[in-house]
Amino acid sequence: MASGLGGRLGGACLLIEGHTDDVGAEEHNLDLARRRAEASARRFVDNGVDRSPAPRSGTRSPTPAPTTAPMRAKP
């Protein structure tokens, strides 16, 4: 997606949020979500999208985790 956008946003603003599941400590998950958002933003910038209109944030709204370890292991 990032490579397909290049400079074609036409002034549109992207909101990039990182998410985690609900397993683990909230503080750790929020930090992980922020790092995921930042990594995604970097990917857009590396593909020619202007960074300024791309706010990034972690979220405190976790995605419910799959209930079994094998389900969590799937990409």
Question: Which tags fit this structure?
Answer:
75 residues, mainly alpha, 40% helix
Provide a count of the helices.
3
Uncertain segments of ≥5 residues (pLDDT<50)? none
Cα-based radius of gyration, to the nearest Å: 15 Å
Structural class: mainly alpha
Largest sheet: 2 strands, parallel
Query: How much of the sequence is in beta strands?
Result: 5-15%
Run of helices and strands: HEHEH
Describe how the helices and strands are arranged.
Blueprint: H1 2-5, E1 16-18, H2 26-46, E2 56-58, H3 69-73
Parallel strand pairs: 1-2
Describe the protein's architecture and organization.
The structure is a single chain. Helix 2 links the parallel strand 1 and strand 2. The radius of gyration is 15 Å and the shape is elongated. It has three helices and two strands, in the order H-E-H-E-H. The longest helix is centred in the middle third of the chain and has 21 residues, at 26-46. It has 75 residues and is mostly helical.
Quick rundown:
With 75 residues, this protein is mostly helical. 40% of the residues lie in helices and 8% in strands.
